[in-house]
Amino acid sequence: MFDWMIVGAGFAGCVLAERLATERGATVLLIDRRPHIGGNAYDRYNEDGLLIHEYGPHIFHTNSDMIVDYLSRFTAWRPYTHRVLAAVDGKLVPIPINRTTINTLYDLALTTDAEAEAWLAARAEPVERIETSEDVVVSKVGRELYEKFFRGYTRKQWGLDPSELDKSVTARVPTRTDTDDRYFADKHQIMPKHGYTAMFSRMVANPAITLMLQADYRDIRDLVPHRRLIYTGQIDEFFDHRFGPLPYRSLRFEHVTLDEPQHQAVGVVNYPQGEAFTRVTEYKHLTGQQHARTALTYEYPSATGDPYYPVPRPENQERYARYEALARATPDVWFVGRLATYRYYNMDQVVGQALATFRRIDESLGRAEAA
Ligand code: FAD
Ligand code: UDP
After folding, report:
1. Residue of 40, 80, 186 best suited for mutating to test ligand 1, as the one with most atoms within 8 Å of CB
2. Which of 172, 189, 215 is the last residue of a domain?
């Protein structure tokens, strides 16, 4: 009899397994249907010995000291400031849109924030209530830049027009009037020094944690006795899709190795215009690895395949709310993570959510009982 079964060995599942085993001495069976730990943050060395991210580029960034302190128990870090270029009208320009982007694209020489702000303000469209992913962008940069940088990319990535997606999606990408070309503005921008999988291995290296891979919850839920459950898979699947399926967007990853030391100037190049792929990642920028060859990943969005992204739009939120109510009424089961809480969360947010869940478990069960 295990104290806990935890379904999913990604960030959510590994953090909770580690906390319950280390702090409460609980016995944990941690399962995943995939043949590895790490969930979507899993990385591995390819045939050429280059470290790649199996499920696309994972760049760690957070404003939370607490989350960095916690993860630092399991990994050292390398500083990495993420920069992204967008291939637009035959040029490579910084995204998020900044003053350099405008100057390069339009052959201008705006030199101050105020000049760039005035240039954008002259093009921005007034939007009374910002609700959609189109509203967010056109209200800041106008329709032309919206079409060049956001409309095509978003239609590819989501299979939906930005006008059909919640504002939170494109609001992830800011607009700048200075020349800051960092993709993220967070206080901490760091990568696990030896990779994510090495970090996860240390998290679950506790004799109280039993790891079972290539094991689907459906197949083993009745076979292995457990007192309580933490579920980090799709919430609609857990409840047999009784309110209908929740849409999740997928991707197909094409991993290639080139016989050259460097392919592109930055870690990621976005393709918001004609190409079928959305972005190309070159891992050596992220990992700092020295190697004669270089590994890239092309991302092709897809309606079918593994569930990678919840799709933020009102009707999906309404359907999720019905599942969430059901989850709240299900005793001894905790739902955590990007798939189980249907939230477009970054890694640090999932760690924060998992640590908060650990505290909630303590509160609701009492310290002694959590084990
Ligand atoms: P997951 O990592 O999805 O783990 C859930 C696990 O549960 C999976 O391994 C799955 O196999 C398993 N599972 C599901 N159902 C079952 C079942 N029935 N039985 C057994 N196992 C099951 N975040 C960032 O902070 N920075 C980034 O740069 C970044 N880039 C990203 C790029 C891409 C392409 C994607 C898709 C995501 C990116 N993210 C990024 C988000 C990040 O991947 C997530 O926040 C994080 O991995 C979520 O962790 P999780 O544990 O909630 O879910
Ligand atoms: N986006 C875009 N063009 C870009 C970058 C982003 O249209 O060059 C939009 C797109 O809808 C994307 C969203 O902004 O899905 C969020 O971008 P982010 O880079 O955060 O996506 P993620 O890394 O989560 O896939």
Report:
1. 40
2. 172
Residue 286 lies in a domain: no
ipTM exceeds 0.95 = yes
Asked whether residue 31 is assigned to any structural domain, the reply reads: yes
The set of residues, in sequence order, having a beta carbon less than 8 Å from that of 101 and lying 6+ positions away, is 86, 93, 94, 95
Tokens of 185: 């503005």
Q: Structural domain of residue 348, as residue ranges? A: 2-37+204-247+311-370
Query: What local confidence, expressed as pLDDT, does residue 371 receive?
Result: 58
Looking at residue 364, its pLDDT comes to 85
Tokens at 168, concatenated: 């939170």
Query: Which numbered ligand comes closest to the C-alpha of 11?
Result: 1
Q: How far is the CA of 190 from the centre of ligand 1 (A)?
A: 19
pLDDT per residue as tens digits for the range 264-290: 999 999 999 999 999 999 999 999 999
Pocket lining for ligand 1, CB < 6 angstroms: 7-13, 31-34, 39-41, 55-59, 216-217, 232-233, 251, 308, 337-339, 345-348, 350
* Distance between CA atoms of residues 80 and 64, nearest Å: 17
Task: Please report the pLDDT score of residue 365 as a whole number.
Answer: 81
Output the CA 11–ligand 1 centroid distance in Å: 7
Same domain, yes or no: 165 and 208: no
**Which ligand 1 atom sits nearest the alpha carbon of residue 349?**
45
Q: What is the CATH number of the domain that holds 16?
A: 3.40.50.720
Q: Kindly provide the b/e burial profile for residues 261-281, where b requires at least 16 CB atoms within 10 angstroms of the residue's own CB.
A: eebbebbbbbbbbeeebbbbb
The bound ligand whose nearest atom lies closest to the alpha carbon of 54 is 1
Q: Is 178 left (phi over 0), alpha (psi -120 to 50) or beta?
A: beta
**Do 209 and 159 share a structural domain?**
no
- Distance from the alpha carbon of residue 139 to the mean position of ligand 1, in angstroms: 32
Give pLDDT < 70 ranges for the chain: 367-371
User: Ligand 1 center to residue 54 CA distance, Å?
Assistant: 11
Reported pTM: 0.97
pLDDT digits (tens, 9 = 90+) for 115-162: 999 999 999 999 999 999 999 999 999 999 999 999 999 999 999 999
